[in-house]
C-alpha cells in the first residue's frame, strides 16, 4: 500500500542494507530538491524479490542476478514506484526495454571484508578450515589462494551470516566492505582484504538508480545525484562483464580506478569455480566501454575456449 501524498516513490528490497541504501538516496534527493524536503514527500516502498525469498540455495541454481531485480523492475513498469535503488553488483548486464540506470551514487569502499572467528587472516587459517561464501567469485579466489581449505555456500543478509559465523558453522566468511560501512558495522571485520588479494565483484560498492526512460521528471530529479567518476568506473567494469557474458555461474572480478588525468586503470580476472585456473588482465585507457570490452576479449583469449566450455558457456 503506497502513500498517495508522496511526490516520489522509491522501490527497494527489504534487507537492512537495501533499506539503508534507499534511505541514503532519499536523503540526497531531499537535500537538493526543496519540494522533497518534507518527510512524507518521498515514500520508500519495500518489494520482496525472488532472491530474498529463496535463501537455501546458491543463486546460480535458481536463476542468477535478475532474481534481485525482477519484481522491483515490474513495479517500475506498472508505475507503482518511480525509482528503483539497486546494488549495481546485483544488476544483469542487459536491462529491460524502457528502463535504465541513469544515476550512480558516489561509490563506497569496493573491497571485501574478512571475518574470522579466531581473528586469523586468510593466509593463517589452518589446513581444512571452512570458509563460508555465497559468491562464486570469492570462492574461486579463496580456493586459488588456499586450495587446502574448504569453501561452502553461505547465503543470507549481513546479520544472518555473522550470526552463523558466531555459532561456529564456519571458521571465516567474507562480506562487502561497502555494505558494512553503510550499516555502521565495518569495525566488526577482522580486516579489509586488499584489492590485490581479493579482486571485487563488478560494480561492488556502487548504488544505481533505475528509472523509466520516458519519465522525464524523475530523470531530471536524479541527474544531480550522478557521481561522474563512479559512473565511469561502473560502466568500464560492466562493459567487461557484458563482453564475457558474465553471470552468477562465472567467477568474474574487476576493479576500475581513474587517475588525475582521466585515465582509467582496469584490473580484471576470470576463474574456474574450483580456483584451479585463474586468468587476469590489466590495461589502461580513456573510453570506458572500449576499455572494458578490450579487457573482456583479452581474458577470453588468455583463457581459451576450453576454459569457458568448462564453465558451461560457449564464449
Q: What is the general shape?
A: globular
Mean pLDDT: 91
Order of helices and strands: EHEHHHEEEEHEHEHEEHHEEEHH
* Class based on secondary structure composition and strand pairing: alpha/beta
Separation, N- and C-terminal Cα atoms:
45 Å
Number of helices: 11
**Which parts are unreliable, with pLDDT below 50 for 5 consecutive residues or more?**
none
Q: Which bin fits the share of residues in helices?
A: 25-40%
CA-atom Rg in angstroms: 20 Å
User: Could you tell me the number of beta strands?
Assistant: 13
Going across the major beta sheet, what is the strand order?
2-1-3-10-4
Strand content: 15-25%
Largest sheet: 5 strands, mixed
Please tell me about this protein's structure:
The protein has about 325 residues and is α/β, with parallel strands linked by helices. It is built from 11 helices and 13 strands. The protein is globular and about 60 Å long. The model has no long low-confidence stretch (mean pLDDT about 90).
Short description:
With 315 residues, the chain is an alpha/beta fold. Helix content is 33%, strand content 22%. It has a five-stranded mixed β-sheet with strand order 2-1-3-10-4, with helices on both faces.
Could you give the topology of this structure?
Layout: E1 8-12, H1 16-32, E2 42-46, H2 50-53, H3 59-62, H4 70-77, E3 83-87, E4 99-104, E5 112-116, E6 130-132, H5 136-145, E7 150-152, H6 158-166, E8 172-176, H7 177-182, E9 191-193, E10 207-212, H8 216-222, H9 228-243, E11 252-258, E12 264-271, E13 278-285, H10 288-303, H11 305-310
